[in-house]
Amino acid sequence: MSDQHPEESSIPDEVWEQFARDSERDIRASAPKEPSARARMVTSRLRQQDAQGVRPDGWRAPPVPSGRRSRRRVGTVLGLLLALAVAVVAMKPSLIPGDPFGSRPGADADTSPMPVETARPTAPPSAANPDTPTLDRPFAGSPALHWGDGEAGIVLPPAEPVGSLTKAQVATALRQTKTLLVDANLNPKTLLGARPTAALGVLDPKQPHVVDELKWSLAAPDEKYDPLLLFTRFDPREVRLVGKVVKVRGRITFARGEDALLRVHADYTFVYALSRGGSKEVARTIVRRVIETELVDPTKYGVTPGRLQLVRYDESTGNSACGVHDGFLHPEFSSTGPTGAAPSGPTTDPYDRSRDLRQGDDATCGTASRT
User: Fold this and answer.
1) Domain total in the chain
2) Which of 23, 93, 161, 305 is a Cys-bridge partner for 298, taking CB atoms 3.0 to 4.6 Å apart?
């Protein structure tokens, strides 16, 4: 037999004191009370009728006393035990298996998505809780926890006619821009190094240099021709995506261009959760992209009708090794420390969408204040 004390010996003294007080209250409540004058009169009359062998109409024999009292006693004991159990659980909810009250440390009280972003935020997101990301909860502790999931996070604005373009033509340009964003940043095959065929397919092959340079950067990446300026890619030999969700936050707007029929502006931040091999450690990489596409009048310029001109693409990345130009992002894990070159740029918040992403921000590699 074990020498250990029984489990109930670990119950705090405060709980036993509460149990004693509750027991005393219940005993007082159930103690016999002095009958009222009216009760004594009724009792006297019933005794006289009983002596005469008379019973009033509707009189029923009382139930078996032992059974009734037995049930009441059992109910009282069960009630007291239940009250004691509730008191113990209230003081230490972890005694109950699982997480019935959502009180587990780090549990997310609300994981519903945020409203769609319609304008630039006025401030960076507030500090999230300090939870550590896990394989089951890869976005724990991240402001992106409440962002949109994948393609559903890219919501197109309602199309309207612009200049000589019809509503349908504007809607087509918006859908093509979304296709570019999705295939470049959310397609699992692209993320693990495959060729972003759909993204390249919406761009005008007649636009000087752009498509040819993008294809070259994918085939032979280096510092000058870097596919990461437009495409998000991770080395599948190094990391794997955790789950099937990429968190997304941003907006798309459109207007008439200065020298074009239509200009579409897209500003989105993507948050990726990654791990290595059989490790349970999770790291997050945050990529913000600003791209602008145009529809140019084919009657005035030598362009392909219905294809987009890519006129701007800027990016900023949080948590990727600096100075590596192999065409892949390389997340840094806390267990291994920094890799690559030392950061030369400023420390910035990769979740801050209130600041403008200026052209040339990608020229220096800085430090992410959080991931």
Assistant:
1) 2
2) 305
Token reading at 260: 């074009």
Please check whether residue 154 lies inside any domain of the structure.
yes
Instruction: Copy the structure tokens of residue 303.
Output: 């362009």
Cα separation, 139 vs 125, in Å, equals 15
Question: Is the residue at 119 inside a domain?
Answer: no
Express each pLDDT in 221-279 by its tens digit: 999 999 999 999 999 999 999 999 999 999 999 999 988 999 999 999 999 999 998 89
User: Do 227 and 338 belong together in one domain?
Assistant: yes
Same domain as 198, residue 99: no
pTM listed for this prediction: 0.71
User: Following DSSP, what letter does each residue of 68-87 receive, concatenated?
Assistant: HHHHHHHHHHHHHHHHHHHH
Query: Both 363 and 306 in a single domain?
Result: yes
Which tokens hold the place of 82? 């239940």
Q: Is residue 50 part of a domain?
A: no
Residue 264 CB contacts under 8 Å (≥ 6 apart), including other chains:
173, 174, 177, 252, 253, 254, 292, 293, 294, 308
Range of the domain at 323: 143-368
Q: Is residue 72 scored above 70 in pLDDT?
A: no
DSSP string, 95-146: GSSS-TTS-STT--S--PPPPPP-S--SSPPPP---PPP-SS-TTTT-GGGG
Q: Could you report the per-residue pLDDT of 116-142, keeping only the tens digit for each?
A: 999 999 999 998 778 999 999 999 999
